[in-house]
Every structure is written in structure tokens, then in C-alpha cells.
Amino acid sequence: MPATKDPFHDRLLAIVLKLPGAYEDRPWGSVHCKVDGKIFVGWGRLGDGDMSIGIRVDKWLAPMLVKSDPRFTVAAYVGKHGGVDLRLGPKPDWAEVENLIVQSYRIIAPKRRVKELDALAGVGSAGKARRPSTRSGAPQKARKK
User: Which residue has the higher pLDDT, 92 or 122?
Assistant: First the structure.
């Protein structure tokens, strides 16, 4: 662990630790955050000092991000699985960063962890706000007058 505090690291870790079962690991000397043993985000400083994070996105989305936004590049080793790296720059949009980390978590985490996350957020398993159910569990049909 570096002797100096890194506010970007602290902010990223705070985002990660809000997710069910998520924890920091340093398997190769750099930060990789996992859920149930599977990496969903990692980060580190580039040679020029900028922070870069590695996340997972849907496979179809990765090439679009890389082509349309110069902050994104294909991630080494996991690029074929939807892995991308994002250069944060000096003033990141932290809401965007958090959203990307949470989406990466949703892709990697087991279904039970995603359900835990949804429960914390107050949404159903399909990612939609919960609706009250009818007594029988099936939606009632509208009656004609």
C-alpha cells in the first residue's frame, strides 16, 4: 500500500464497498475489487499520473464505447469478454464512474448478489421499481363496463 493517500482510490473504494459482498484485493500488486472471488473492477495510476479503471460492460457495448469516446480502450486479457479501461482524467464525473462500476458488478456478480443490490436500492429483480402484487400473484384484468 502506498504511504500517501490517494483521494481517487478512496472515492473508488467507497463506491465498491457499498456493493453486497464486494471487497478490495491486490492479487498482482494493483487494486482489483471482487465479489465472491470474481473481479469486477480494478484501477491504478498510468505513467502520466492519470487514474484508469478497468470494468466490464456488455460485449456489444464495448466496441461502441471505444470507438465513440477516447477515454475508453479495450482492456488487456478481458477485452474479448467486454472488458474496457476508462481513463478518469483530472475531474471525473463521479456519477458516471459509479454507474459504470455498478453495471460491471451486475455483469460479474452472482444472481443472489444482484438481488441483494436490488433490495438495497428498492427495485425488483428485473431492475424495475416494485409494484404491489395482487392476492393471487397474477395481475388483474381490467373489467369492461
Answer: 92
Q: For residue 43, which of 94, 93, 87 has the smallest C-alpha distance?
A: 87
CA–CA separation, 8 vs 5, rounded Å?
Answer: 9
Q: Which helix (H) or strand (E) holds 55?
A: strand 51-56
pLDDT cut 90: percent of the chain above it? 76
- Relative to beta strand 51-56, strand 31-35 is unpaired
User: What pLDDT was estimated at residue 124?
Assistant: 64
CATH topology of domain 7-113: Aspartate Aminotransferase, domain 1 (3.90.1150)
Is a pLDDT exceeding 60 seen at residue 136?
no
Q: Which residue has the higher pLDDT, 145 or 79?
A: 79
Residue at 109: amino acid letter: A
* C-beta separation of 43 from 12 below 8 A: yes
* Contact status, residue 54 vs residue 85, Cβ threshold 8 Å: yes
Q: Based on the number of CB atoms within 10 Å of its own CB, is 75 exposed (0-12), middle (13-18) or buried (19 or more)? A: buried
pLDDT at 8 over 80: yes
